[in-house]
Every structure is written in C-alpha cells, then in structure tokens.
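Can't paste images in this forum, so I'm doing it all in text. The chain is below; anyone willing to post the predicted structure tokens underneath?
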Amino acid sequence: MPIFRSFLLFFFIALWWLFCAAALNGHGKPSSEPSAGQTPSPFSYAPLEKYQETISYVVKRGDSFLGILSHFGVPGEIAIQCSRSFIPMGLPALLPGDSMVLIRNTRGLATGFSLLHKLTSWYTATFEATGVKVEKKPADFSEHRCIVRGVLTTSLSENLNAMGVDDACVSKFADIFAWDINFFVDPQPGDSFEILFDKKFIAGRFAGYGDIFAAKYVNKGHVFEAIGIKDPNGAMRYYDPEGKSLQKQFLKAPLHFTHISSGFSLHRMHPVLGIVRPHLGIDYAAPVGTPVYAAADGVICFVGFQGGFGNYVRIRHGASYETSYGHLRSFARQVRLGARVSQGDLIGTVGQTGLATGPHLDYRMTIGQRFVNPSTISLPREKSIPAEEARVFAQSRQECGALLTMRFKGKTGCFVLNVNEHKPAAPGPE
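Text version of the structure:
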C-alpha cells in the first residue's frame, strides 16, 4: 500500500509539471490578435497608414494648381491633370480667396483635395491608382435671419456699415424705396430705419446677402414701409402694408448725384447766356462718367446731339409721358432710335456737352407735351398686389410685423434672429 500511494503521488506531480510546462511554452498566453471569426474589440485601432490629416490653404494672387500642389509634394503631372479636368466643369483658374483643403496620410502622401471656389461650389479630386477622380458639388450654406435697427446720425451707408452691414445691403434697401426717397438728398439726422434680411455663410465665411423681407424708413416724420414677397418668377416685389405696390412708373431721380445745381424754374438766369429764361428741368450735378438710367420703361424717340443740350436722349413712356436727358458724355451701346428700354437700364453717362458750365445731367419730363417738375409731380404707381397673392402677402405682413415689433424691441444694432442650416447654394456664374 505505501508503494501504491507513492506511485499515485508521483503520477499527479508529473501531470502538474506537464501543465506548467505547456503554460510556460505560451499555449495559455492570451492572444492580442483576434482569431478568425472572432469579433474585434470596439476599442481596437486601425493601422496608422489609414489615418489622414488635412491641410488648409487660402489661394493668393498668382497661385496655380501646379504651384500649390507641388508645394505639398504632389507630382506635377497629377497637378496638371487636376487643372485640366476641372476646366470643363467651369473652373478655368483659381481665384484669390478660394479655400483649398489638402488630404494626406501620415506617411505624407497626398490622397486628394477639395477646393471651395467663389463660395458657391466644391471641386474635389481624389488620387487613385488608375488616375485622378474629380467631381463638382454646390456648396451648402447657412442663412442667418437678421434685423438691423438704428437712428441716422451721418449717412445711411456709414451708419449701417458701423453695424456690420455693408453697402450691398444698403443698395438693396435704397432700391426698395427708390420711387419715394432719394437717399442722396432726402435723409436727415434723426431719421430711423429697420431692415429684416438674410445673411449667407458658407464654410463659416460670409457669402453675401439674401432677400430683404421687410423694411421701414422714417424720413422727417413720414413713415415708409415695405413688405416683400416673391412673384411667380421668383423676383421680390415690395408693397406697403395696404398691399399697394411701392414701384412707381418713374424713378425719382435717374442717377446718383451729389447735389441739385439748378431746379425747375420759369425765371432763371442762364449761367452761360447770361439772360433770364425758363429752366424746365432739374440739373443734377455729378462727376463725369456717372451712369444715367432710364427713369421708366419706354421707347427712345431721339438720340444724338441737340444744340445747347449737347448729347441728348429723349424717351417716350406710353401715350402721355416723355423724359429727356441732356449734356451726356456718351451713350450706352444699346441706345438707338426706336429701341425699347426698361426702367433702370443704362442709357449714358454724365458729361458737360453743349452749353454747360460743369458736369451735370439736365433731366426733364413732359405730360401731354407740357413740362412738369419731376421732383414734385405725383407719379402713378404700378397695380396693387394680385388677388392670387393676397393670402401669401397677408401672412408675410403678419410674420414680418411681429418680428420687427417684438424682437429686440427698443434696441439699435444688428441682431441674429435664427439660423437655417444646410441649404444648397445656387451655383454662381463661372
């Protein structure tokens, strides 16, 4: 029996020794690599070669695809291929301010790039073994609905610029009230203004202004208001709160002038001839070359040199109205006898031709061949809002009125009301 017990003890010791030897040889070591069919840990990492980095670059004057991509180690033949591939897509050349994002892996090899061109389109190139793959997509943008409110201290342009609103929006605002207010001479310190409009941003960069939805200007106590809705063609049309169109048949002034050098008068001393005689128009002083526009839709019934008026254009508007433009330096290319023009079309530029002591526009208007004062005559408006658009107008008037009345009440400045994200940008002209 003692011999049997010794044998059993020796047998179990031998088994224990063999198990330990197997463990020491690595058969029991946990593997860091998942076996076939085993689900990898969600915290495992991909090989470093698959990770990429991005490099941002803003295009400067004189830059080219070849120069930029070569700087980042892209072979010249690939850069040339990218440039050539983008030309049929509407990208003939890079422009200063375009944004480029180069993508490369951690080994420093470029795998492609994206280019934001003119804040309207993304051009993407991917470098593959078979060549370069390119594509174009419209850039997404966000719209910030804003309200700007203030009191005039210097000029509308300077006051709005100080609030972060540039002249592109100022011009849109002035155009809305162009038939009632001349923003070169009418505004006075103490006037107030309100504008409800959109700002556009692409990739975090300001990309311009959207529509103006409502506007208000108080000039020497007289209130001018505008509510905008889009017509069937997508153009914004503006009406007063009663639904009457703000657009009249004639502009209040057909140019941007510095001052009125001579008004409408039946007894004026002529500055050149030195005699008293009627001046049946308005002289708008302006620098030589200032654009002059058609005051209303019509047909050109005279173009050429006309004695003391110098270079002269006369336009017939319907059966009763005519306007004339004297002392022009030059005529627009499309201005010719019998040609039709639309309100706001360029017809010429300010000059000093004929009997004139300085550069200005002699602007005249007749009704039934009777001269009238263009600055005081009550001019006809376009028709009121169409019946089929009345419901949309009423809704817009209510919404805009609530925003202007309730949001940031009593405060002056430019304020963001809301942000609409991820809207496709309309491709700009290439």
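The helical segments are 2-24, 65-71, 76-86, 156-162, 167-176, 390-406. Residues 142-247+382-424 form a domain with the Nuclear Transport Factor 2; Chain: A, fold (CATH 3.10.450.350).
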